[in-house]
Every structure is written in structure tokens, then in C-alpha cells.
Amino acid sequence: xxxxxxxxxxxxxxxxxxxxxxxxxxxxxxxxxxxxxxxxxxxxxxxxxxxxxxxxxxxxxxxxxxxxxxxxxxxxxxx
Length: 79
What we know:
With 79 residues, the chain is mostly helical. It has a domain at 12-47. It is built from one helix and no strands. The longest helix has 33 residues, at 15-47. It is rod-shaped and about 125 Å long. The model has no long low-confidence stretch (mean pLDDT 82).
């Protein structure tokens, strides 16, 4: 190739430069998304219960004091 056939720098397309910028931008976005996903996963692990055991609490209820005790007799006659 002679010098007359080569395009000078001003005539060359800048697609290579733009594609590298786009590539770095996509890599940066992917890294940010991976970081945010990691933070969300860590928060999920922190908020889960400590263990899978069931906690049972036992209370004994005392009966309430009764008022006056009365005995009532009901007589039913059939017709």
C-alpha cells in the first residue's frame, strides 16, 4: 500500500473507540448489578431466623375464683 491509499486519521471511523466505551460501560453496569445482588443476598442471610427449632412456651393458668355456689334442680314432665 502506498501512502496515497491509506486514509489519514481524520477519515478513519471512530467505531473502535465507541465500542470500547460501550464495552466498559456495560462492564461497569454489570459490576454494579453484581455488587447490589451481593448486598441483597447478605441482607437476606442476616434477616433469617437463627435456627429452625420450634420454641414452645408453657404457662399454667390458675382458675378464677368462683362466686356463690348454688344448686338448682330442674324438673321436666313429659305430656
